[in-house]
Amino acid sequence: MSVEMIRLHRLHLPLVRPFRTSFGTEVVRDVILVEAVSSDGVHGWAECSAMSWPGYSHEYADGAIDVITQHLLPTLREVGGDDGPQDVRAAMSVVRGHPMSKSALSTALLDVWLRERALPLATYLGATRDRVDCGVSVGIPTTESIPELLDEVGGYLAAGYRRIKLKIEPGWDAAPLEAVRHAWPEVPLQTDANQSYTRADAAHLAALDEFDLLLHEQPLAEDDWYGHVLISQACRTPICMDESILSVESADSALRFGAASIINIKPGRVGGYLTARDIHDLCWSRSAPVWCGGMLETGIGRAANIALAALPGFTLPGDTSASNRYYEVDVTEPFVLDDGQIAVPTGAGIGVDPIPEVLADLTVWSTEVRVG
Ligand code: NPQ
Ligand code: MG
After folding, report:
1. Does 219 contact ligand 1 (Cβ within 6 A)?
2. Homologous superfamily of domain range 3-118+356-370
């Protein structure tokens, strides 16, 4: 382990518009970036996907700071010399859960390791593309206005996005889907309920089949495996799992049980890019489609996700939107949409760095911890 010091930076990025999901409304992205510094002065960067409060999953920013500094960093004492990414993952496995914290710290170390070897993350992971297809996740309008929704979707389609995902919840589903499908008969369209339905909603969800959807994402609670089997059997629309998928084993279970036929891969939710790649490999071997999810990443997290989305099994457009979908000012050079795609970074490691002045402007708190 050549990394001598870790810095945590907490940033507040105002969103270009409020983002409302079935679990709440966000107006500012409160996000932690991890900077790892090696003895040779190589700086690695990663982003923690946890929100400021436990709305999407149990993890949250204050908890992540505690887990990273008090519990994960000490496990690295066991990692010595030139030990690589697999050893870091193994060392951290003594801490239960907290995948977003593990992903943030291990990815910052991976970025140092790759930069020391002049190896791009995409190449290391096995990418086969140099551009990735991008979709966009569309929140519930805070006004619950359908014309406003159509306006927002129209803007994204004009910008070139190749797939629309509507956030839904009980009371906001058939009407917005009908309106979008009517306005754009051919657009690839899918939903994300973020666990807001129950087993009793099987027939209601099946009635949404008429809108010709690519998939429904996470209709039920993350631990309701049998419920997802029931929904899968009731709907012609394929079911995709997000929050339920925490490991290779949960992805395998989802496919074998018939709880889901498509997997949303989020590196943070599964503990890092190695496990994300392993889930991709499993799904690729079973011909199950995967796509890369999003957690309102800054350019730091976005760069790494785009590298992952360049693997061959990512056959559906991801929530890998351009920087300006969420932020007027990104912490890196902005990622821009070009014909509905984003170019995979080609530099060593994640291939991007924070812009120092912007980082300083957005930072609300930081800390520095020595490793070992
Ligand atoms: C999802 N993301 O797929 C998540 C949920 C989500 C792009 O739909 C702050 C930080 C607010 C992370 C709101 C997308 C968030 C967040 C929603 C993640 O389920
Ligand atoms: Mg989701």
Report:
1. no
2. Enolase-like, N-terminal domain (3.30.390.10)
* Distance from chain centroid for Cα 293: 4
Question: Which residue, 351, 294, 295, is CA-closest to 318?
Answer: 294
Which ligand is located closest to the Cα atom of residue 240?
2
Nearest-10 crossing angle of helices 225-234, 248-257: 40
For a substitution probing ligand 1, which of 12, 13, 16, 19 has the most ligand atoms within 8 Å of its CB?
19
Q: At the topology level of CATH, where does 123-343 sit?
A: TIM Barrel (3.20.20)
Ligand number nearest CA of 134 is 1
Q: How confident is the model at residue 272, as a pLDDT? A: 98
Name which residue sits closest to atom 15 of ligand 1, judged by CA: 295
Question: pTM of the prediction?
Answer: 0.98
Domain ranges of the chain: 3-118+356-370, 123-343
Residue-level pLDDT at 1: 59
Residues of the chain scoring pLDDT < 50: none
What gap in Å lies between CA 13 and CA 316, rounded to an integer?
Answer: 28
d(CA 6, CA 4): 7
Q: What is the pLDDT of residue 80?
A: 64
